[in-house]
Design goal:
The structure is a homodimer of 677-residue chains. By secondary structure, chain A is an alpha/beta fold. Chain A contains 27 helices and 18 strands. In chain A, strand 4 and strand 5 form a beta hairpin. The longest helix of chain A is centred in the middle third of the chain and has 23 residues. At the A-B interface, helix 6, helix 7, helix 8, helix 15 and helix 16 of A face helix 6, helix 7, helix 8, helix 15 and helix 16 of B.
């Protein structure tokens, strides 16, 4: 219905709508429906509630906003443009979905500082939001002092039907309710439409009541298209609830304003088309050219700049006084915000000699965590209900629970995927936490999408994955990793570290912690997966922290050019050591290489790599109690990779290892075969 | 509390408990707590309600039982032994968790016919159960006739807190409620304990109410330890509810009977220890030797044999009359139950010549599905809310919905992991359905655990995964698969097929359908993942269905020994074809190999494989728009694998392919480099 004159709010809201419509139309690709339907709630939220500084997306105490329904990216880009973020111009909007633009199809945090977290895969954003709200609760409890609320902000998420169907969001929201995260406010774009059509096809649960069973506070705004006041009241009411997260079901029409496509699946994921764009302009009374924002609306939106500058300035004044009174905490805030590690932090990492009792690398990991926790207050984490098995408990910290948010041990429950996504939130919150999480290595399968997003979004998460091979024994093939290390190595920009003993576990942590602070040290923050044993392993002569920081290194060598190189990782490196002894006693020149991390090795210069694995030495045997997939890279055409490419078996771990060929004898046999004997 | 004389029920229940306790104790490994706590409900269910024939675990119309809390496997093994399953002896129980025993740590369907589905990873079993209940509803609607209820059975699941925390179960249970699966009855072993300790640590949602929001019928049995009558009434009431699935929260004590460990996490996952075993024997008044079952109890339990024989015999009489009156349906039942494919079914698979218009392989896939659906009524499936994108709709079938169970198109909703686990249930139900499911290839990450279980449990599921590379374009790096094909290849016993054109897509379906019926044709049923394009691809000269059934084949060749072999998969095979033309015009002898499926290729005999990729021809170039991880296997030390090992970009698909090097020019350049020019 054409309106003669539009109110200022309508102008502001339609500005969002038409930037989205026009950008998608120009790209001939994208999702106009959500921006058109969610524009009113986004306006109320960003114009009236959110506390942020468009000129400083990294302001420590900003409210965080996540678009969990990431396909609606033009909504977010429009908001960033309208409110005056520096790095987003009209030209950027016109380059929506084009090569190397700042406006990719789904929001990517590394392309644009205004984007808190990369979203797109459904359900992730809301789970990230739970993590960000946990960060706020934790840091507020830890850092705030009387009259110094330096951490005091909300986490807002817009999510849709898809996010609510995904299991990862159920997991995270159940935990959020348990934790009583009162500063988390989720607006549910409740439009009853998904790609297949009406949600009546597959999704008829009572979402609002479900969230109540999690312990959330739930409200409904019946007309999210035009009842701005209702939206406003609901957000205010949600803010007033301090002991529960809040869900606001906002009933909207997808593609609102499009005469033919509104309220249908056709508004979801395709450009409206020239005719329908025209019809929508008529319907909403929008006479402006593509990408043209009426001056009144832009001026109103851009009040966010002064507002934000003022908010941040006030906070800085508060923080200055805080630093005077609490210099240690002040320094900590700054160090964390700068993602700096304290000088010599790694001195706490324990080292070992072969005389030290061999224990499982998961136990070494537990020791490392506890040592690091003492010098890095930013370390926070937990396990998906496997604390005793994963060795993740922090001796000096109680559990992070409602009313005890200052603690840093998190009980995630049996919710691996939610745990990973929450950790991405903890990492990308921007305050400087270093999160770790843990489960059995085989269950990385449950959380792979979150691990991948850690890598893609440069979230410095440390994934502690124990029980890393058939050596775990009796739990059997459903629990014994086979292809997991290989398949994780295939994920770009993820460190996969499989330490052989105590020194190497310390080395793994040195790498992982530095990678989590990557931007300062190597230009790229990376997550790491640590693959750790259930069973005890000996401490090896020659192992070192240093070696792990190079990815692969020579553990022991004969004089002169080796006849043969044995390459081991993790618990199998000891087999190489013993096999080398035997082969050397028979006159062979054998080099033993420990290779805890392929990715770090590949980052070393060519000279170093050649010094460890000289091209000319083609006789090679690798051994790893996992899939041989990919090992041809390091053993080559003339080498042999010893591994296991079938499912395991339920039996004691030692029996499994022996039956599947992980013995010194087998290494020696294969070595001789490679040598042509 | 020692009891002077035990009732017959108590004897039967304690028989379960002590078989579990003794087996775990002997193995010094395992989970005694759940069997001890869930024994009463298991007794009531198996002794009084379940309709099954211990001597014929494959009886078509049996009730199905799934232990979703798979770690409690001794509960299931005890039940199978006590009720008289043929293949489970006392000796097998004594070999619990030992090499190659029939009683592995978690129930494995391929080790024991009494085990319906492999469980262990939490949340899977209940989701499988949803699938099995869907199978029952579908086949009942499709096959039953007036007075001939040949499909009429219940699906029972025992699940625990862990299963209820997992997102996969939320997804499946939400769908189950939407579908109104009245024959699904889940007993929730509600013991408030998980590995970390009390569920108060992380899991305080109102589970019962949550299930009500899904549309389930929910009851509570307050004393699941001793109130057998209450359990009985609840199951009966659940059976009477025909339009909703039922959840019965049974409050139990984990490790019931163990004075020190009951109701603690120490009962969950470790042997009780000799002292505590003794104390438990005293507490429960059990004077029998390890593995000794009192005669009264065993006789009572074994009544299941006659009962079952009678039930099955009655059903067979019914079925015989059904076959007379409905011979066609009768034949269908038998054919499906035997996992036989009708003669010449594959004649419907379309074939193409290069003159036929090139379309996306996802579109070819849609055509194949529809063609196959006409001749295979057992085909059933759907998509996770991407029906138009995945091309999965069946033209001749409406949606499978409440009251319309005879239809075979399933609207899974945005629930990838639940979808995969449900399909495992559909496949392993045993009635002979062939399920397919679909989403974007990148979202195999969400459902990897279910895919792995398909492979491990020999579930013939067809995973249709579209939008398989950066060529999908503007949706960008969160949606563009990179490492997915490689990482899926790493999963043992899974076919990963990436067809190049129409003929190869038909070939992919021939392989996938036969693999789904594998036991009859090759001794091993396998799931398949089909990686399909978003974009159109030409039909290639020389491509064939037959070629795909060999995994890799020569698409075109020069005379004599090739100088160079170009290997392509999927959409990149056409680049090999064009590059070969160019190189041949320059006088090179070039062989083009299409390699749609590594795993099938590796199953061919050595002679065939050598004929396609002769060892002596070392100059090779492969090209696949995905990770190069693992390609060294086929290109060797002297070859080059063209791929992409970094994240993609949001831009039109053609731009992405060009920018990342997927061009004829690049293949030619790399070819010349390999040839040393």
């Amino acid at each position: 219905m054409a309106v003669a004159t539009q109110s200022l709010e309508e102008l502001c809201i339609n500005s969002i709508r038409f930037l989205a419509i026009d950008a998608v139309e120009k790209a001939k690709s994208g999702h106009p429906g959500l921006p058109m339907g969610a524009a009113p709630m986004a306006f109320v939220l960003w114009d009236r509630f959110m506390r942020f500084n468009p000129k400083n997306p990294a302001w420590f105490n900003r409210d965080r906003f996540l678009l969990s329904a990431g396909h609606g990216s033009m909504l977010l880009y429009a908001l960033l443009y309208l409110t005056g973020y520096e790095d987003l111009t009209l030209e950027d909007l016109k380059q929506f979905r084009q090569w190397e633009s700042k406006t990719p199809g789904h929001p990517e945090n590394f392309m644009n500082p205004g984007v808190e977290i990369t979203t797109g895969p459904l359900g992730q954003g809301i789970a990230n939001g739970v993590g960000i709200a946990m960060a706020e609760a934790h840091l507020a409890a830890k850092l705030n002092k009387p009259d110094f609320p330096i951490v005091d902000h909300y986490t807002y998420v817009i999510l849709g039907d898809g996010c609510n169907m995904e299991g990862v969001s159920s997991e995270a929201c159940s935990l959020a309710g348990h934790l009583g995260l009162g500063k988390l406010i989720a607006l549910y774009d409740d439009n009853h439409i998904s790609i297949d059509g009406s949600t009546d096809l597959a999704f008829t649960e009572d979402v609002g009541k479900r969230f109540e069973t999690y312990g959330w506070h739930v409200q409904v705004v019946e007309d999210g298209n035009t009842d701005l006041d209702g939206i406003h009241k609901a957000i205010a009411a949600a803010q007033a609830i301090t002991d529960k997260p809040s869900l606001i079901k906002v009933r909207t029409t997808i593609g609102y304003g499009s005469p033919k496509k509104a309220n249908t699946r056709h508004a979801h994921g395709e450009a409206l088309g020239a005719d329908e764009v025209k019809a929508t302009r008529e319907y909403l009374g929008w006479n402006h050219e593509p990408f043209e924002v009426p001056e009144d609306a832009l001026n109103h939106w851009r009040q966010a700049i002064d507002r934000g500058a003022k908010l941040e300035q006030e906070w800085h004044q508060l923080f200055e006084r805080y630093k005077e009174q609490y210099p240690e905490e002040g320094r900590l805030v700054e160090r964390m915000h700068e993602a700096e590690l304290p000088e010599g932090w790694d001195a706490v990492l324990p080292t070992y000699t072969p005389e030290d009792k061999g224990i499982a690398t998961r136990a070494h990991s537990g020791n490392c965590l506890n040592a690091i926790a003492e010098v890095l207050p930013e370390l926070i984490g937990g396990s998906a209900d496997l604390a005793p098995s994963n060795n993740t408990l922090l001796k000096t910290s109680g559990d992070f629970q409602k009313g005890q948010y200052e603690n840093r041990y998190i009980r995630f429950g049996v919710r691996e995927h939610g745990m990973g996504a929450i950790c991405n939130g903890l990492a990308l919150d921007g305050s400087g936490l270093i999160p770790y999480c843990a489960t059995f290595l085989v269950f990385t399968d449950y959380m792979r999408a979150a691990i991948r997003l850690s890598a893609l979004s440069e979230a410095g998460v440390i994934y502690i994955m124990t029980h890393d091979s058939i050596a775990l024994g009796e739990d059997g093939p459903t629990h014994q990793p086979i292809e997991h290390v290989a398949s994780l190595r295939a994920i770009p920009e993820l460190y996969v570290i499989r330490p052989a003993d105590g020194n190497e576990t310390s080395g793994a942590y040195k790498v992982a912690i530095k990678a989590a602070r990557g931007k300062r040290y190597s230009n790229k923050t990376r997550p790491s997966v640590l693959a750790l044993t259930r069973q005890a392993v000996p401490n090896l002569a020659g192992s070192s922290i240093e070696g792990v920081t190079k990815g692969a290194y020579i553990l022991s060598d004969s004089d002169g050019t080796p006849d043969l190189i044995l390459i081991g990782t993790g618990s199998e490196t000891q087999l190489c050591v013993k096999a080398a002894e035997q082969l050397r006693s028979e006159g062979k020149k054998v080099r033993v290489v420990s290779m805890p991390c392929w990715e770090v090795f590949e980052e070393q210069d060519a000279e170093y790599r050649e010094s460890v694995l000289p091209k000319a030495v083609k006789k090679r045997v690798s051994i790893e109690a996992g899939s041989t997939f990919g090992w041809c890279r390091y053993v080559g055409d003339e080498g042999i990779a010893i591994g296991i490419d079938q499912y395991g078996s339920s039996a004691p771990g030692g029996v499994c290892m022996e039956k599947f060929g992980f013995t010194v004898d087998n290494v020696v046999t294969k070595a001789k075969a490679v040598l042509g004997e």
